[in-house]
C-alpha cells in the first residue's frame, strides 16, 4: 500500500486573506498546486484546505464562534456556502489535472461538542483512499451539541484524521516559511516542552480559528500522541511530497531524535 499523506492547503495560500475582501480565490496558485500534486500520483493523498477569505469573514460576521441560536443561525448556511464554493473550485482544479479528487464536507457527517469534533464516521475516507480517490475536506461550520454550531478549522481536521486514519506524513502548507521566532527565523524543530519559549501570534487577517497559534496548538496535541507534522511554505510543496527538506518547522514528539 502506498504511503498515506495528509496535506493541508492554508486558506492564506489559496485565497487572498489579507486584503480583507471576502471571496477572492487565487486560482493560479490552485493550478500550480494541482500540477505539483499530479507529479506525485503514486502517493495516497488526503487533502484538507482552510477557508481564508471564503469563510472566516462570514463566521466572524455571524459570531459563529460564540455559539449559534435562532438569532444567528443564518450564519451556518452563509459560512458553509462560502467555504463550499472554494472547495468546489479546489476539486474542479485538481480534476482538470486528472487527479481523482472528491469533495467531503464536514458539516454533513461530523458533530462537535464545545468546538471539539466528537461524532464522525471515517470509513468512507478509508475506502475512498483505497480506491485511489483523493478526498478533499475543508475547515467548516458543524453542528455542536453544546453551542448549537461551531467552526472546525482545517487544522483540527488534520489532527483528528491523522490520528484516526494512521497517516504516514502530515504537512501544512501556508504563507510563511514555518513557525517563526522573535527574530523572524524559522524554528526548525518544535517539541511540546519548548513551545512556551516562542511567542506565537494569531493571523494577520480575519481568522476565527486562531491563526498560527491555533495551528500549533493542534499540532502539539498530535506530537503528544507521538505523531510528527510539518509546517512549510507552499513554494516548498514538492520537497515535502518527496520527503526532502522543506525548510520549515517539524513539530515533533518529545522523545523522537
Ligand atoms: N510566530 C509566528 N510564525 C509564523 N506565522 C505567524 C506567527 N505568529 C503569527 N503568525 C501568522 O500566522 C499566519 C498563518 O496562519 P493562518 O491560520 O493565517 O494560515 P493558514 O492556515 O494558511 O490559513 P487558514 O487558517 O485560513 O487556513 C501567518 O500568515 C502569520 O501572519
Ligand atoms: C471559517 C471556516 C469556515 C473554517 C476555518 O478553517 P481554517 O481556515 O482551517 O481555520
UniProtKB/TrEMBL annotation:
The record describes its quaternary structure and partners as: Homodimer.
Q: What family does this belong to?
A: Belongs to the isopentenyl phosphate kinase family.
**Protein name as catalogued:** Isopentenyl phosphate kinase
Keywords linked to the UniProt accession? ATP-binding, Isoprene biosynthesis, Kinase, Nucleotide-binding, Transferase
Q: Where is the Aspartate/glutamate/uridylate kinase domain?
A: 4-232
Q: Where does substrate bind?
A: 51, 56, 154
Q: Where is this site: Transition state stabilizer?
A: 17
Pfam families membership: AA_kinase
Catalytic reactions of this protein: isopentenyl phosphate + ATP = isopentenyl diphosphate + ADP
Amino acid at each position: 500500500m502506498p504511503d498515506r499523506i495528509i496535506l493541508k492547503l492554508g486558506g492564506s495560500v489559496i485565497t487572498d486573506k489579507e486584503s480583507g475582501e471576502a471571496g477572492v480565490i487565487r486560482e493560479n496558485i490552485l493550478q500550480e498546486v494541482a500540477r505539483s500534486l499530479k507529479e506525485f500520483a503514486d502517493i495516497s493523498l488526503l487533502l484538507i484546505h482552510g477557508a481564508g477569505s471564503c469563510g472566516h469573514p462570514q463566521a466572524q460576521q455571524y459570531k459563529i464562534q460564540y455559539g449559534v441560536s435562532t438569532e444567528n443561525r443564518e450564519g451556518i448556511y452563509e459560512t458553509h456556502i462560502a467555504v463550499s464554493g472554494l472547495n468546489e473550485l479546489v476539486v474542479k482544479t485538481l480534476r482538470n489535472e486528472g487527479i481523482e479528487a472528491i469533495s467531503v464536507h464536514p458539516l454533513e457527517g461530523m458533530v462537535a461538542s464545545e468546538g471539539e469534533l466528537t461524532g464522525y464516521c471515517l470509513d468512507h475516507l478509508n475506502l475512498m483512499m483505497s480506491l485511489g480517490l483523493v478526498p478533499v475536506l475543508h475547515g467548516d461550520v458543524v453542528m455542536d451539541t453544546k453551542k448549537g454550531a461551531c467552526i472546525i478549522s482545517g487544522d483540527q481536521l488534520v489532527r483528528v484524521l491523522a490520528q484516526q486514519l494512521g497517516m504516514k506524513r502530515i504537512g501544512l502548507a501556508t504563507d510563511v516559511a514555518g513557525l517563526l521566532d522573535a527574530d523572524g527565523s524559522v524554528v526548525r524543530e518544535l517539541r511540546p516542552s519548548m513551545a512556551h519559549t516562542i511567542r506565537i501570534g494569531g493571523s494577520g487577517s480575519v481568522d476565527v480559528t486562531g491563526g498560527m497559534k491555533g495551528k500549533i496548538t493542534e499540532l502539539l496535541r498530535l506530537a503528544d500522541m507521538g505523531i510528527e507534522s510539518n509546517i512549510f511554505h507552499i513554494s516548498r510543496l514538492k520537497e515535502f511530497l518527496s520527503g526532502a527538506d522543506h525548510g520549515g518547522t517539524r513539530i515533533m514528539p518529545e522523545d523522537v531524535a
